[in-house]
Design brief:
alpha/beta; TIM Barrel; eight-stranded parallel beta barrel; 8 strands; about 35% helix; globular; binds N-acetylmannosamine-6-phosphate; Aldolase_TIM; carbohydrate metabolism; N-acylglucosamine-6-phosphate 2-epimerase activity; RibuloseP-bd_barrel; isomerase
């Protein structure tokens, strides 16, 4: 896999509406800070953020386009949603690789084939289970990530799904990326020990609102 080198720490630079950092300029600064810290790639959402980040770094960009209802398929849910992300400079498209119904009724293999043929970039499938990972690989994804584990079954654990990473590594003949709730050096070591090819970290680096809230909730007075 040439787009993403083995052992890469990918920093996910995303800020949702309501976050004061929700602006392409902020995400570009985050990406520069991540690169200065040693990140080997950036994950970013939406054409405006991808373009702003592309303008300030030559690092590979994993582009996504979050659209629609977050309780369903919403990470680059259709072929059309990937077009502007690649035009903006993404080197790789990440998309929902779960087995849930897609909003346009297309199959995952159809969406991936069109991205390959019409946009010419590789695809990373964000999955929630081993079965979804196997299916996404069969559907043509070049990489599979544990991104959606804990977000499709009503129960979100506090740490990364190390066991899913281990299972995906054992079953798949492609790079497996660890993503989702990786927060500490111990988390990074655990997913690397499980065989992760690369590791994506988001909130723990790029969401000071979330970091602050977690620390505030730990304050106790007596
Ligand atoms: C479930 C979902 O929507 N995940 C999104 C995918 O792009 C992002 O909101 C996460 O921040 C990203 O996956 C990195 O994970 P974490 O921020 O936990 O390090």
């Amino acid at each position: 896999m040439t787009v993403l080198a083995p052992g890469t720490l990918v920093v996910s630079c995303q800020a949702a509406p309501g976050n004061p950092l929700h602006a392409p300029e902020s995400m570009a600064l985050m990406a520069r800070a991540a690169e200065a810290g040693g990140a080997g790639a950036i994950r970013a959402n939406g054409a405006a953020d991808v373009a702003a980040i592309r303008a300030v770094t030559a690092l590979p960009i994993i582009g996504i386009n979050k659209l629609g209802d977050p309780s369903g398929v919403f990470i680059t849910p259709t072929f059309e949603s990937a077009i502007d992300i690649v035009k903006a400079g993404a080197d790789l498209i990440a998309l929902d690789g779960t087995r849930r119904p897609r909003p346009d009724g297309q199959r995952l293999d159809q969406q991936i084939a069109r991205i390959h043929e019409e946009l010419g970039v590789p695809v990373l499938a964000d999955v929630d289970t081993l079965e979804a990972g196997i299916a996404a690989r069969e559907a043509g994804a070049e990489l599979v990530a544990s991104t959606l584990s804990g977000y499709t079954n009503g129960h979100t654990p506090s740490g990364p799904d190390v066991e899913l990473v281990r299972q995906l590594v054992a079953k798949l003949d492609c790079p497996v990326v660890a993503e989702g709730r990786v927060r500490t050096p111990d988390d990074v070591r655990a997913v690397c020990d499980a065989g992760a090819y690369a590791v994506v970290v988001g909130y723990a680096i790029t969401n000071p609102m979330d970091i602050t809230a977690r620390l505030v909730s730990a304050i106790s007075t007596s």
